Queue: 4 jobs
Job 1
Amino acid sequence: MSVATAERWERRVHLGAHPLLYPTIRSLGAVKPVMRIPGLGVLVSEARLVRDVLLDGERFVKNGPSASGGLWTPVVGPKALVNMDGAEHRELRRKLADLFTPASVAEIVQPASVALKARVEHDLDGPGRVDLVDCVKELAGGVISRLLGVPEHTPGRLPNKELFDLGSSISSLVRLGRPTLTPEQAAKGRAAVEVLAGPARSAYRDGDPATFPGRLRGLGMSEDEAMGIISAFVMVGTETLVSFVPRLVALLADTGRIEELVADRSGMGAAVNESLRFTVPSPMMLRNAVAPGNIGGTVVRSGDRILLSTIHAAKSLGGFNPGEPIPAQARQLWFGAGPHFCIGMPLAMAEITATLEVLLDRFAQRPWVIASRVVSTRVLIPGYRKLELANAL
């Protein structure tokens, strides 16, 4: 295997999801860093300019009518963090910060990572193959259950994979060419949120500070506000995680980096960050301009929809190379920047690290290889539909 092989597979992943849009966005970004696209908005494709927009929370907001936050308000209510701006948003982030410390996220992820390890060992020791995509969906579902405040063996609790599928059904309502949700789509999203929120409401009412909903109640949030925040975390984080982790593992396996990390894990952080940079699990971010001005010399009018092409901004910096430092203008750009930098980043990184540790531990005991893979087609977030690992002969 080689870097060229890894990069060919990544291109297949992107083209499978967006066979026309991906090459169009990449080609437009190569022509001009900022471009007005009739009917869609202003496309920004250079990392420095993308970061500038994200840092300017006064002129470019997330809760506008065609920005990503505004899309979710009919589904999760007006106070779900992802659709807030200004002083109210800053205050809520401050209150939530203690819920995403290293100790807090480790507590959330640990039971799911134990289950992941058991699944990987069972499937590789028995049938000899394990579908990593399916495993990561179960991991994400396990984390969702912890966020909902639902213990593993609660009667009537949805299985982990069904919890993931429910969250995914909400996030899949979004499309780049769809500035707002239709009433039918919003109703579908609210129905899914209510299924998720049912057990979380019980945990909120119990007020147990050991649960995530109980902690939100302790912070003084109303029940509806707490449900909106929990639903937003479920929607925004799970699908990108399930997209990224199998792609991370494929990149590291295709380039021979798995063997290097088994021998020396000090390079894990650089390998994960470069994989995030190269795969860009959040390929596009949306903002609304609320004041006239310009971006990179292009005139922007109040009300313009701003399309931030993180996919071009990050990938245009070069091929996959964990040994090369990521330029400052692109560092962690896939998690955003400024007031809306992803508050759940520590949780996502804990899930990523836990999965990679399980696979490295297994490889050290008995090496595995990628036996088969299938790219997902016509999906919002590019990824693999299946990535099977098998014991090496």
Job 2
Amino acid sequence: MSRLQDALAASDQIWGGWVVGPTIIGPEEFAQAGYDYVGFDVQHGYLDDADVALLLRRLEHVPIATAVRLPSADPAPIGRVLDAGADAVIIAMVESAEQAAAAVAATRYAPAGVRSFGPLRASLGHDTVALEAEASVYVMIETARGLAALDEICAVPGLTGIYLGPADLAISMGHRLSDAWTHPDVRAAMAEIQDTAAAAGLVTGIHAGTGQIGKTLADMGFRMITLASESQALRRGAAAHLSEATAGTTDPAGQDGYLQ
């Protein structure tokens, strides 16, 4: 099994960080902090699949699972990030069973799919059955059209899970971005996605953005919860350090402090 599959098998909830830029230390810091996985964003982030391949290679011996979000079910970039060692792909803006099936096919070799053979790391081996088994595929439901096709999407064979995008879902449903966590209709849609996907035997994932929201989502039953991006974590930590300095407070016992 992959690291991501191992983490899910060991715990009801797993916690993730998110990387949107070409950082070297960000993923390792998430691992050091105890996160279970890190996601690399090729949809909205300043990354392409070549950047991701280098980051994945650096994490080969770091104890953290990996996922890559891609903007479509185009099989070429999906194959490249899997060949580079990603544990999972997360395909954005899926609105039909046909799109979900195309995402699954991109992770499978012939005759079941359209993935081309070409692992980029020797450690991945050459066993196509094992390579397929270790490649998890999630599709994002984040629009009203995707929500309407929820049952059909969840029935697609070979799908690992559903990953929910709360911001786009709220916008697509005609609400403000700030309503993503508070509007009853959006919350009901989130609960429907979680319940339907779980009933179909799928893993449910979601973006949270804060630990407090992450706790609420865990209580709702979501299993794969992304808490923050590296930029969010940096901003929060930087603000806390500045607040401590300007308020004249001290860092007890030099907590996490060092000079270099």
Job 3
Amino acid sequence: MTLFWVASIILIALSGVLVAWPFIKRKENNDEALRDELNKALYKDRLTELEVEDEEGLMENQQELIADLKQSLLDDIPTENQTAAQSNMNPWLVIVPSMLLTVVLSYGLYYKFGAAEEMMEWQQVNENLPALSKKLMSPEAAALSEDEMQDLSLALRTRLHYQPDDATGWLLLGRIALANRAVDTAIGSMDKAYRLKADDPDIMLGYAQALMLSQDDIDQDKARSLLGKLIQQNYMDVRVFSLLAFDAYERKDFPAAIRYWSIMQQMIGPEDERYEMLGRSIENAKKQLGDSSTVGTSVAVTIDLGQALGQGITAQPGAALIVSVHNADGSPVPVAAARYPLGTFPRTVVLDDSNSMMQGQKMSQLDDFIVRVRIDNDGNVATKQGDWFGESKPAKMGQSVSVIVDGQYQ
């Protein structure tokens, strides 16, 4: 709003200069002097003519004509009162009222026919952009009201007009479009964000969400590819598995849908209100498969570092995270295992029957199990010296477990 006031004051000042300029630069009114000079010139010319006529004998009353000519010259000279009245006129009597009229008309007409209220609202929306953006970025984005969505959309479009390379801005605009079910806008915004910052997990997830709403098979395939990359990067977000489960169910891949919903259950825990809803979805998918079908079970493992590791670990370039599932009796032979990049902690990984290691035995067939985690410092499974490790307490199949890595092989 400051810019508006500055610009309006500058324009009014320029208008005032234009009004006052003729008075500031005006010169003395020389019309009377010029007329007097002209009369004198005409007088002299006429005298010359009279002399010529007198010499030619064409004139009898030369002196009378000369007297009349002088009287005419005197009658045409302006009085001192007229000249003083004109010269004593105060220019500010014109400048001040003109300036006041300009100011009153300018702001009055703008208030009546302009967009003063809309401008103030726009400025207020721009000021609220950080708070609204933070609110939208949270998982509880549904808490935004319809008016807040409109305000945020306006502010984002304004910012993106001046900062088209703002990937976060395009991501937020895409999320607003997703909330409003504006599929084309959502895909377009997310695509721009992805092109600007393709390695951002939040942008990848948002782009996948938008593509999943498309009716184009190519878009949906791209969405599955993005979600697969997120899982490979250990981006354990409930929304990733929710999208995969919904997509699998729509494609009638019920075992995959059940697996993803089961993973979600393990991630959120029974205390979450969504747990029972996921259970109903699983039961519905099982009914679609029939009673004779068997569905694999997954295990979600949350891994964190113990205090002995301080602020972190110093690992060699080939370091890896190895997670294995064993019988509850502590058998050294893993039933299932997976290897991941070291990454950051805390983190959650999920193992299922696809990670089974033993011929003829699936991980889902275990009743009780334990999970062992090892940070392989040199990337060589055969060597253990200097590696860190941790082990979970026994758990029932279907339960999620936590492992603290706080031991070290000597």
Job 4
Amino acid sequence: MNFSEKLIVDDNALFKIKNEIQAEFSHGLNYHGTDVSMIPTFVYGLPDGTECGTYLSLDLGGTNMRVCEVNLSGDRNFSISQEKYKITEDLKTGEFTELFSYMAKSIGHFISTKSQSKQGQRIPLGFTFSFPVDQSAINSGKLIGFTKGFNAKNAVGKDVVETLQDCLNKQNIPVDVVALVNDTVGTLLAHSYQSGGAKIGAIFGTGTNGAYLEDLTEIKKLDDEAKNPKAGSKMVVNTEWGNVDNARSVLPITEWDDIVDSASINPRRQSFEKLISGMYLGEILRRLLVDLHAKQEFLSNTSTLPEAFNTQYGLDTALMSDSLRDSDGETTHTKQVLGALGVSAENVRELDAQLFRDASQLIGLRAARFSACALAAVIESEASENAAGDINIGLDGSVIEFFPRFEQSIRDALNVILGNQAEKRIKIGLAKDGSGVGAALCALQAIKQGVAKK
């Protein structure tokens, strides 16, 4: 069997994977501690584009922290001003309270230099905190542990909303932290506002995840207080679908996927994500090409591959996108990519360039078809509930935005799984900046739910 046959996902596999995802969704809605967590967000509704007002958002998740002010005009449009603030290594590894004190100080600086709000007026803020938390309300969540190079001391078990609010109060900064939000949930909220109502939000970028609005009666693990009908009959659920099929019961795993997984920091975890997301697609291609070189099927006229091919994550997924700018039979851009990877021009044969492009295309197509399975798993429940309405989906992330034909390949696979009639009902749009605009909209939703006063 050649490499292309191993990367093809046939139509029968799509249905099996979709069914497995639905089964794991159901398990996660019923029980705590499951692989696919189906995390309740305590967001009981979605914006429809008519909302107005000014809200702040704070996005913490990497080297930089971002403070935004979002002005909603009520006609699905908004304006945004923002400022980035550097998070030093000392802040990442020092006392937890020092990190949050700096965050509060940065918010204060933003208000004094960028904000259009009246001086002294209290402003609601949505907090995008991209680390594991045990969330118990829309405005409450205790830190489970830091990731991404953060390791602040005395942090685990602390309520991140309460801590930030305390720091703001000590510095007399007129801001109320009213909502804690995940970036995928933010994507759903942002697209719902900009499109006039949405059903599903998903990210296909460095990682992958999805969120959707679920009936409270289906979230069996929720306690009775969270099912208070006064709040609403539905709640946004953060699926954490990247963790689907860690048991590998249905996913067609190749030997190259196995190598990527074994060498990762979390073997046999995030199995679905490792087949889809931008962090891993280039690495799958690299491992495949190294294998083909050993078999003298790729760059066979060179005894050793350039350093990039022998370095973990040395082949960025963006280079696959660059290669796919070539149409069928062309290799101009692909040869440039190989040159950027250190292959000398005299060693690049037409056959090698075509193989690189074909492998990129197949790995990307496979990822898109897997992605469609996750979307279809949610869409089917929405379709059965409202057979006449549109299914409006907001997508964000570098893969969906920049990888050639990724969105179209998702659409094609959805037509296979759901039938051609689904194409008329499924509306897909890019939802930009869920961590900024979406967090501000989550603050608005918190006010609607009575968590805070505007």
